[in-house]
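Chapter review: from sequence to fold.
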Amino acid sequence: MTMAETAAPAAMERVRELLAAKPDGVIEAVAREAGVSTLTVLEQAPASERVLIGPERFEALWQELATWGEVLFIVHTPDIVLECEGSLPIGSFGHGYYNIHGDSPIGGHIKAENCRAIYLVDRSTAQGRRACSVQFFNGSGEVMFKVFVRRDAARALLPDQLARFEALKTKFA
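The token string follows.
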């Protein structure tokens, strides 16, 4: 059952209205305004903007992302949008976490068992630019974290990472 299937009809109508009015809106902002989870909103975005990957693929997907070089790692909560550029270290399971440590500013402990859905998200931003990310969702339908394809100095997506992102659609979907 999707998150949208459990949301109230009035809330779902509000989500559809907000997405129609601003199709490039920030998914988290639409979710807050409609009073639903972030995942509920994403699942209402056009199917062409999202590809579902099963959460059982967490480790294999992480290991693939670790080969991308420096990425943009984002944690977006109601209180902070934390952005960090760095490579994703290869992790390992231990003590109930997926532990990531290495020569990168990105490190720590991820409760991977809480991951309930992973989406490849390919949307336009409010600035009219394409944005490509891998988003990991928990059981409440909120984003645990996101891994974005980085941009160059001209704000274009890095071609190598973009090609790797596109390849994920075939390899993991």
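Two observations follow directly from the output. The chain has a mean pLDDT of 93. The radius of gyration is 16 Å.
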